[in-house]
Structures are given as C-alpha cells and as structure tokens.
Backbone:
C-alpha cells in the first residue's frame, strides 16, 4: 500500500498477502485513510494509536493488525524519505516500551541454550 503527501512524496507499506490481505487493504482505504488526511506524518505513534483505538471494534487482531502494520511500514518509509535517511537510521520513540522484557521458557530451546529450561529461567533482552 502507498501513503502519499500533498506534494506527491510517498511511503510504501505491505499488507500480508496471506489470508486477510485484501481485507486489510479495504480497512485501510475505508476506515483508516480518511483519518490520516491532513495529519502530520511525523506524529507517527499518535497516528497509529488513534487508528488502533478508532478501529478496535473491527477486531484487535487479524486484518486490522495487518492494516496497522502496513501503515506503520509506510509511515517509516515516508519519514525516511522526508528526512533524507534510511528508515533503519531514524530514531525510534520508545517511551511506551519497557527497557527489559522477561522471557519465561516452558521447554528447552537450543536457540536459547542451557538457560532456557524448566520454565523458571529468565532472560533479559536489552
């Protein structure tokens, strides 16, 4: 999907081609796009939060989540173009994210090694 500014600059995002992909595009076109017109795309987190809470009755998962993900990707792409940086180098607003996430493993995992056993070990992701 494509999000475009008034002056023709655009960002590209992708809705999953898996089951529900077309439904995501319909949700974007019918329910989300009208809410983005005239908004500042640099208010990325506010826009996505507003869309999420506006469209929550469409369902918090599935096609709605895929639509939000596609818009998120498109907004990052557009911001990168506007700021002259690859989107991977843009600062990420992390005020809503915890600094430490704990994983509780219920089965032994080779990928996590010896620490991922018995359901009691905790791994801090930093």
Residues:
């Amino acid at each position: 999907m494509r999000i475009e500014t008034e002056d023709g600059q655009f960002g590209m995002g992708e809705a999953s081609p898996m089951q529900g992909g077309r439904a995501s595009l319909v949700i974007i076109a019918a329910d989300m796009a009208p809410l983005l017109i005239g908004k500042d795309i640099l208010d990325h987190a506010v826009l996505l939060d507003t869309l999420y809470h506006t469209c929550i009755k469409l369902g918090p998962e599935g096609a709605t989540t895929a639509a939000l993900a596609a818009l998120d990707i498109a907004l990052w792409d557009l911001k990168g173009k506007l700021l002259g940086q690859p989107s991977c180098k843009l600062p990420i607003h992390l005020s809503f994210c915890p600094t430490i996430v704990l994983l509780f493993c219920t089965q032994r995992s080779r990928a996590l090694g010896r620490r991922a056993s018995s359901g009691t070990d905790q791994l801090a992701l930093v």
The longest helix spans residues 63-83. The beta strands are 2-4, 10-12, 101-104, 122-125. The chain has a mean pLDDT of 77.
